[in-house]
Structure prediction request, 518 residues.
Amino acid sequence: MSPIIILVEPQLGENIGTAARAMANFGLEQLRVVNPREAFPNDKARAAASGADAVIDGAAVYPGVAEAIADLGFVYATTARVRDLAMDVSGPRRAAAHLRSLAGDAKATGVLFGRERTGLTNDELSLADAIITLPVDPRHSSLNVAQAVLVVAYEWRLAELAHEEKGLPFAGPDAADIAAKEDLIRLFEHLEASLDEAGFFRPPEKKPHMVQALRTMLHRAHLSEQEVRTLRGVIAALEARPTRPLPPHRVAARAKRPG
Amino acid sequence: MSPIIILVEPQLGENIGTAARAMANFGLEQLRVVNPREAFPNDKARAAASGADAVIDGAAVYPGVAEAIADLGFVYATTARVRDLAMDVSGPRRAAAHLRSLAGDAKATGVLFGRERTGLTNDELSLADAIITLPVDPRHSSLNVAQAVLVVAYEWRLAELAHEEKGLPFAGPDAADIAAKEDLIRLFEHLEASLDEAGFFRPPEKKPHMVQALRTMLHRAHLSEQEVRTLRGVIAALEARPTRPLPPHRVAARAKRPG
Prediction:
């Protein structure tokens, strides 16, 4: 029971295609087209749909808005302009939450999008239950129709998923991989011993603060076990004391280095 | 301090224009373009911008990602694909809230968007602090670049409108101190050169992946300028090549070390 997207008198096939692609990106499947200027479906729409052929092929064409919404229970109309109509006005986020709750009640819903230049007429708006408008910068309030469809589809998807993080196609580092503190502490001690030997902690009375600064810095990276091993390898490499046995010429060189 | 939108190697002027329009719709003004295929600005971009001329005319062109982000403190990269990189991943909503809080601390931020077909490379991703990915339907995960810009810009606008001053009695590290990317990139290059000399990158074919892993690890710590200086001092100390002049006995010792 996802909302049906209804494009009213779109002028360009490209815009229908781009809207279909935006729908498919966010899991909307049902498209209706009211009195398109070009015969529909057409190749321009299909090309712009960029793989969302199922949305184009499944789209239905209607002669007017009344016919296109006849079987629906609740309809939002999108508009960027203030109207002299006593209708409820929502942003796409609140509207999506509402559409989601209607879908839970098995109610068929739709969202109307107007013509590229002139939008929806007041007559068409008065066939809808409520208005969606977008939180645009008033200096640039004109959205491409496919962009408006995208924002509504995006909010629908988030409303459906309920939690943004669950709907992402992949996740960041797995918290389960975060190194145990004992590994981290051994890394700290390794680094600090090496820096001690290199004479890094000067003047000596500043050492406690310098050590704390290094530790908090490393902590903030939330290192994995593998990353802790990598960093210990980095320290060993830089101090020219690899964990593998030193080649003889390096042992000799180290023996000649002071402190 | 709105985030800067950075388009990496866009192929078509139309896409730059549509992205600029989407930015203007939601109050974003600063656009950077990395190595566009067509001369930029151009008429196609201006036509597609549909009134957002100020964004097009104010856009700056850069030869590479490193140059385009050099003066920024925190950079998100957008990608639709899972990557073998240990980077934080957010949806646009959480990212926008984070960008808004950084803006409150007067920190310059940016969001990278990749090429139309191939997106961003892993090398480019490893120059960023974290990833934004969109909660798309996995069957149709490919978004037009301007659509991706739109969603990020929309979430930015909502985050900005909803922002409330932080009411906590004290705060964590001051985001205003975050190192600029150019300092971070110099740190990376210093570390990688030292590790190269130390023979750390073995086998050589694994070097690109090892470099990316080190860069993402360091990025996750969100280092301050002072911390970048400290880490460069750490590297210099460990490689026994302090930034201060070497005492004579050390110069003598170094002269005897091979490699």
